[in-house]
Design brief:
By secondary structure, this protein is mainly β. It has two domains: about 50 residues, no CATH class; about 120 residues, Immunoglobulin-like (Sandwich). The protein has one helix and twelve strands; from the N terminus they run βββββββββαβββ. It has a four-stranded antiparallel β-sheet with strand order 9-6-7-10, covered by helices on one side. Strand 4 and strand 5 form a beta hairpin. The protein is elongated.
Length: about 190
């Protein structure tokens, strides 16, 4: 065993002072929806350290279907995104609301940066056409209260979307993308 090799792993998935796993690659089942902090403690001979990631895991009561019918329109220098409302007939809200988070990127399979939040199914991006020749948008549905939404956005200012064809696409990431200029066909995955 080398001096740098980790000898113990401890995971506290709710950051409540109770360690939930001692595995290097743990799994954990959350009993209720919410936003959770995660604490990881590692030990090696004569040394220990821990790291806390705040608002790191978001558990929703229901998996949302992706927004559909995403379209893009150019009006002068403004970009207008529209989509059909997510069907929430099977979702229990419990004092929660439906929000749409919009992210944007220069590439369809690169980092997407947080742009805006709305409860409407239309977003006008003033002067959006002036930034780049091509641009992509990602619309994600989110159910929660305002505090959970703020925590989610704070922890997810950038999201990564990878190529679905390469097998690394996260099926839990719900998105529709559209090029900014509208010259190319609308991409929907």
């Amino acid at each position: 065993m080398s001096e740098c090799e980790v000898t113990n792993w401890s995971w506290d998935f709710e950051n409540d002072g109770v360690y939930d796993s001692f595995s290097e690659t743990p799994t954990h089942v959350f009993s209720e929806a919410g936003v959770y902090d995660v604490k990881m403690k590692i030990e090696r001979s004569g040394w220990a350290d821990s790291l806390i990631k705040e608002n790191y895991i978001v558990i929703q009561e229901s998996q949302l279907p992706p927004p559909s019918g995403v379209s893009i329109e150019i009006d002068g220098t403004d970009v207008i995104l529209e989509w059909s409302a997510i069907d929430t007939s099977r979702i229990v809200f419990h004092r929660n609301n439906l929000y749409y988070l919009i992210y944007d990127s220069d590439s369809p399979y690169d980092d997407f940066n947080y742009l805006s939040t709305t409860q409407d199914t239309t977003l006008v991006i003033d002067g959006g056409i002036e930034k780049k020749e091509k641009h992509f948008y990602c619309v994600i549905g989110f159910v929660g209260d305002l505090e959970s939404l703020r925590n989610f956005v704070r922890s997810n200012k950038t999201i990564k979307i990878v190529n679905k064809k390469q097998g690394a696409f996260n099926e839990n990431t719900l998105f529709n993308m559209a090029p900014r200029r509208g010259i190319e066909p609308l991409l929907q995955e």
